[in-house]
Amino acid sequence: MLEKAVMRRFFLSDSIRSDDRVILTGAEARHIASVCRLKAGHKVELFDGEGNVYTTVLETVDKNSVTLVIEEARFEITVEQSPLTLAQGLLKGKKMDLVIQKATELGVHTFLPLESRYCENQGARNRQLERWQRISIEACKQCHRTAPMRILPVTPLAQADFSIFRHRLVAYEDEKISALPQHLSKQPGAICLVLGPEGGLHAEDLHVLQQWNFTVFSLGRLILRAETAALAATAIVRYLSGGLEPVDRQLSTDHPSPEMENLV
């Protein structure tokens, strides 16, 4: 049996909408024309990052401007009972980029960059946030996620507010007994997962989290790199909370009330 072809997906940025047509300029137009080398007549999908998806046909293609005819417009959203916030201690350089990319692909709802005792990332915060947002959007194009992961500003651990989360989990390299709790799928609710930076979590960091009633767990006997630990823990938590189950997307012509409004 032939597999259904998956259409390429592009982000609706730098665009002009007119009736049943969209004109793309900037980076996305260059990507279509020069990188993907698509031609007039090819079908592609566009998404706006808010759940709207458009099936379109390329009408004209130029490296500076691409015109597309809209064939179908729909609203796609997956509503989860246990949205996950990944609170990651700042990692150096491309390690943080990797975690953001893969967290988007794994379906993390919100990303909270944390400044903890052993963090060494001292980059320009505004530029970092813009870069991370671009990385999440690019990951959405690859995995066909309709809305990018929400990325919050860098926050000192001592100033973070974890009150909205039903489940609070922190991976700690010195924990020798407790594994991840197995009951997450039986008790739906917002989850916060904390991972430390390259140097791990300081005892004072752990004390702050324990005051918020975080459950401390181990990722096993082996010593993992910070980025490996983040992705392993994220995948396990997503699985245990039901986030990796195959489910049909919910389609709607209207915008529903934002899920987990108090996470915004």
From TrEMBL:
MF terms (GO), sorted A to Z: rRNA (uridine-N3-)-methyltransferase activity
EC category: transferase
Main location: cytoplasm
Reaction(s) the record says it catalyses: uridine(1498) in 16S rRNA + S-adenosyl-L-methionine = N(3)-methyluridine(1498) in 16S rRNA + S-adenosyl-L-homocysteine + H(+)
UniProt xrefs under InterPro entries: Alpha/beta_knot_MTases (IPR029028), PUA-like_sf (IPR015947), RsmE (IPR006700), RsmE_MTase_dom (IPR046886), RsmE_PUA-like (IPR046887), tRNA_m1G_MTases_N (IPR029026)
Subcellular location: Cytoplasm
Gene Ontology biological process: rRNA base methylation
E.C. code: 2.1.1.193
Domain Ribosomal RNA small subunit methyltransferase E PUA-like, chain residue ranges per copy: 24-71
A GO cellular component annotation in the UniProt record: cytoplasm
Domain of life: Bacteria
UniProt record similarity statement: Belongs to the RNA methyltransferase RsmE family.
Family annotation (NCBIfam families): RsmE family RNA methyltransferase (TIGR00046)
Function: Specifically methylates the N3 position of the uracil ring of uridine 1498 (m3U1498) in 16S rRNA. Acts on the fully assembled 30S ribosomal subunit.
The protein's name in its UniProt record: Ribosomal RNA small subunit methyltransferase E
Source organism (scientific name): Desulfobulbus oligotrophicus
